[in-house]
Amino acid sequence: MMTVAVSKSGDRAFRCGSPVWFRRAALQISRGSGVDCTRERAIGRRQHSRRTAQNQRYQCGIIPGWDRPTISRRGIVTTDEHRASPRLAGEQSAGSVTRGFVAALPLWPGVIPFAVAFTIAARATGFSAVETQLLSLTVFAGAAQITVVSMAASGAAALSITFTAILLNLRHLLYGMVLRRMMAPDERPRPEISGSMLTDEGFGLTIRHAREGRGISGFMLGSGLSLYVVWNLSTLTGLMFGAMLPDPERIGLAFIFPLTFIALLRPLMRGRIAFVTAAAAALLMLALSSFVSSGIALPVAICAAALLGTILETRADR
Fold first, then answer.
1. What is the pLDDT of residues 85-105, one digit of tens each?
2. Does the residue 66 lie in any domain?
């Protein structure tokens, strides 16, 4: 056991209250040496400044809905809901991917009839079973796949089909821009994987997950993977048993996807500005659809409504 001899200077050192130099002062006192309290306090301040600068380099970004993190002496980021090492924050852990996969399971009943409808339409227009399954494996976009099938049946050129499919999926560019801004700076998304699995429903789920104050890259990958699996399994089911199944479009199941997307985003619409922006986008979309294709009308309506919402929020802040 260390015996501490408290001298007059040592007693003053114990009362200074800085844990950084307190141990050094106690050690010097135990060795019988005097302590310069002012010098030890200055050393403690310099060490505190170095730790503060080091902690600032490790701080993760804050997305909407996150509590501001605090960093302990060991560099651990902590919030009310999330505790993780800053070096590992935002990475695609197995747990976040699993949460995304499970979160998309309630959407499976809406995906199955849509995929079966695509399979029936593809087979009816002359696509082979292999070609139909390959479309689901490589394209993974229901509206674009049905458009490809219908245009191919009408004898459209390959370039025209490709251009139309790109226009239909142009909204995914906007989705990606929104999701990237909501990611923490140290998140490392895999765009070649997550981007190819991004869907309307996956976007809605990821936005809701981001509002809970957690990283979204792993969750986005898991939800996209979940929908990708059920889409391709449903395509295979349609190929095997399509002749025995009724046409989903005849019983009104074609509206399941847009209704699901609306149901996902409705809780996120808060305040008058959000509803005005959504109404403006819908009205502009309907107006433009009379003159241009939906692939052009949709992104134009989204961008115009987003600009309107930004202007309204700016004026409201003033």
1. 333 344 457 788 899 999 999
2. no
8 A C-beta contact, residue 51 and residue 21? no
| Co-location of 208 and 157 in the same domain | yes
Q: Among the three residues 33, 58, 83, which one is the final residue of a domain in this structure?
A: 58
Query: Per-residue pLDDT averaged across 271-296, rounded?
Result: 84
Higher pLDDT, 79 or 301: 301
More confident residue, 54 or 243: 243
> How is residue 245 annotated by DSSP?
S
Which residue range forms the structural domain that includes residue 12?
1-58
Terminal-to-terminal C-alpha distance of the chain: 66
244 belongs to a structural domain: yes
Pick left, alpha or beta for residue 101 (phi over 0 → left; psi -120 to 50 → alpha; otherwise beta). Answer: alpha
Provide, rounded to the nearest whole percent, the portion of the chain with pLDDT above 70: 61
Task: Give just the sign of the alpha carbon dihedral 92, 94, 100, 101.
Answer: positive
Residue 76 is classified by DSSP as -
Residue 99 lies in a domain: yes
What is the count of structural domains for the chain? Answer: 3
Pick from 115-124, 186-195, 197-206: least confident: 186-195
pLDDT of residue 181: 82
Backbone angles phi, psi at 275, to 5 degrees: -70, -35
Report yes or no: 21 and 43 within 8 Å, Cβ to Cβ: yes
Residues 45, 18 share a domain: yes
pLDDT of amino acid 102: 94
- Nearest of 81, 46, 54, 53 to residue 65 by alpha carbon: 81
H-helix or E-strand containing 78? strand 77-78
Q: Is residue 67 part of a domain?
A: no
Residue 77, strand partner residues: 71, 84
Do 120 and 31 lie in one domain? The reply is no
Residues 158 and 238 in one domain: yes
Task: Say yes or no: 101 and 178 in one domain.
Answer: yes
Percent of the chain with pLDDT strictly greater than 90: 12
Residue type, 152: A
Tracing tokens 């099938």 back to the chain, one arrives at 149
